[in-house]
Amino acid sequence: xxxxxxxxxxxxxxxxxxxxxxxxxxxxxxxxxxxxxxxxxxxxxxxxxxxxxxxxxxxxxxxxxxxxxxxxxxxxxxxxxxxxxxxxxxxxxxxxxxxxxxxxxxxxxxxxxxxxxxxxxxxxxxxxxxxxxxxxxx
Length: 138
Ligand SMILES: [Zn+2]
Description:
With 138 residues, the protein is mainly β. Helices cover 9% and strands 32% of the residues. The protein contains 2 helices and 8 strands, in the order αβββββββαβ.
C-alpha cells in the first residue's frame, strides 16, 4: 500500500469459500449451484440451503443485479474505510436471483436507491477490493 492508506481487511480462504476468493482475484463473482435441486445461492456453504445436498458446483455470475436495500455506513470498524465514508453496503439481487450483501462504489451516495441496476466493478478498479464490489450500471 502507498500514500499512507491502510489496507482493507482481507477475507480468510477456507475449504468452502476459496473458489469465491480466487475467482474474484480474476474479476469473477462465483456462486454455487446445487446438483440436487438446481438452485443457485450465496454465501459459500458445504450443503445446499434448499435441499441439503452436498452435490454442489460453482459458476461465474453475470455480475449484473439490482439493489434491493442499502445502508450508508458512516462509522466503519476498520481504519482502511475511514477516508471513504459513507460506505455504501447494499443487498443486491443478482440476475441469477441470488441475494448477496456487497459494497457499492458511487461518486455520490445520494444517487443510490432501491431498484438501481448495478454491475461488478472490473479491471484495475476491481483489484482494489478484496471481495466482489459493485457500481451503478453504466
Ligand atoms: Zn439443492
